[in-house]
Specification:
There is one protein chain. By secondary structure, the protein is an alpha+beta fold. The protein is 53% helix and 16% strand. The strands form two sheets. Strands 4-3-5 form a three-stranded antiparallel β-sheet. β1 and β2 form a beta hairpin. It starts with a helix and ends in an 11-residue tail after the last helix. 12% of the residues are buried.
Length: 179
């Protein structure tokens, strides 16, 4: 059923019958259509709780993934050390400090020279220490730098700027000094 204004516009020829029918259909849809009900307080609270739980779950998953990556990198570093460690045979005790404690590794003369030059590196392995080549040490540095105990190939401590060396260079050490 049309309203009187629509009938008058149709009789006057200002609107077409198809346009009038289309408008009537839209109005009927609006009157009879079901709008989504407004969420109640319980529903809003449930949605908020669900979103908080989802965020917590994402954070836990990210933490688990980070721990898994860390564990994987440690395992890769241990595998690199295991594959590249040198057999240590010798009677020369090569001393170094690990966390403030002086430790020794028995090496021969060639290994001692290579350790001093930085071609070989001492790393923690299982309950002891292992000596590995520079290329393997670089891979270990990339995965877990804390495993490397002694590396003369890397620059020294950032605190040692050479000022002490300059000061002590003015004092000459006698050639016949024996320790």
């Amino acid at each position: 059923m049309r309203n009187p204004l629509q009938e008058q516009l149709l009789k006057a020829g200002l609107v077409k019958k198809s346009k009038l029918a289309e408008v009537a259909r839209e109005q009927a849809k609006q009157r009879h259509g079901k709008a989504p009900p407004a969420p109640s307080a319980e529903q809003a609270e449930a949605e908020r709780v669900r979103q908080e739980k989802a965020e917590r779950d994402r954070a836990l998953a990210a933490e688990r993934n980070a721990q898994a990556r860390l564990h994987e990198q440690r395992a890769q570093a241990r595998q690199i050390v295991e594959q590249n460690k040198l057999k240590l045979v010798g009677e020369i005790a090569y001393g170094f400090t690990d966390e403030g404690v002086i430790k020794n590794v028995l090496v021969d003369e060639t290994v001692r020279r290579q350790l001093a030059s930085g071609a070989l590196v001492v790393v923690r392995h299982d309950q002891g220490y292992a000596v590995i080549p520079r290329a393997a040490a670089d891979k270990v540095y990339a995965r877990e730098a804390a495993m490397v105990v002694l590396d003369h190939g890397k620059p020294g401590d950032p605190g040692s700027d050479g000022a002490d060396d300059d000061y002590y260079s003015q004092f000459k050490v006698p050639d016949d000094l024996v320790w």
